[in-house]
Design brief:
Elements lengths: L1 H13 L13 H12 L3 H6 L11 H13 L4 H14 L17 E2 L4 E7 L3 E11 L14 E7 L4 E5 L2 E6 L4 E6 L11 E7 L4 E14 L5 E14 L1
């Protein structure tokens, strides 16, 4: 486990993911309240300190810092490549993503991409992306009812799913209960990239979710098992 921990530490230097994402950002009234508390910061200044954009992704200045860090810090090559892959993913340079409909349901992106080494064709790294879709929503399959959350994980650049060991561990902070679900193939991207989904009865309130595990993929060169380091999200189910 030393390698994933080291990678998370290095990635954490680049992406301050502890900051609130878009769905958790203070409202204008709350920002004004913070300013009136004697902090000496107006709402615009407070907003500028948030490192994430309206989808919970790092802003460009932090992506630039991550790229510089990866290129100049004395990192093992696989960590350097993983960080650069994450930057490319956020900047739109990743291949084989999932098309998100403009009129689709509201979703929350997991706070950082995850990486599996020796994944694509058994030799190249794959960047994984996770999203959470609070119900009620018919998509993504198998859909989510009121008080449920659908989770989606995509291993970018890979072939189709052969088998999935991906899991989501979740905690409802409002109702003080927790659970775990497995993500499996429900027909999304049947030709690849490998995409697995699952629905959890999370209830309503503030949800903390951790996504982790592996996906076995069908590749042209040779099948592969892609083991991804954990990624996490915090979001609201209303």
């Amino acid at each position: 486990m030393k390698k994933p921990v080291a990678f998370l530490l290095s990635l954490g230097l680049c992406f301050p993911v502890a900051a609130p994402a878009a769905h958790a950002q203070p409202s204008p009234a709350q920002l004004s309240s913070l300013s009136s508390m004697g902090l000496g910061l107006d709402p615009a200044t407070i907003e500028s300190l948030n490192p994430l954009d309206d989808l919970g992704r790092p802003k460009q200045q932090y992506l630039d810092q991550a790229r510089t860090f990866a290129k100049t810090a004395p990192l093992p090559e696989q960590f350097r490549n993983a960080i650069l892959s994450a930057v490319a993913f956020y900047e739109g340079g990743g291949n084989g993503g999932v098309e998100v409909p403009q009129t689709g349901p509201k979703f929350f992106q997991f706070h950082w991409p995850t990486v599996a080494t020796n994944c694509i064709g058994g030799s190249l790294d794959s960047v994984g992306s996770g999203i959470a879709v609070p119900g009620p929503s018919p998509i993504p399959a198998p859909g989510a009812k009121d008080g449920e959350t659908a989770f989606v994980f995509t291993a970018l650049g890979t072939g189709a799913v052969r088998q999935s060991q991906m899991k989501v561990h979740w905690v409802n902070l409002s109702e003080l209960r927790m659970g775990q679900i497995s993500l499996s193939d429900h027909g999304l991207n049947p030709q690849g990239p490998a995409t697995v989904t699952g629905t959890a009865v999370t209830g309503k309130g503030t949800i903390v979710a951790v996504m982790e595990g592996s996906v076995d993929t069908i590749e042209k060169e040779s099948d592969a098992r892609c083991s991804f380091i954990p990624t996490a999200a915090v979001f609201e189910v209303k």
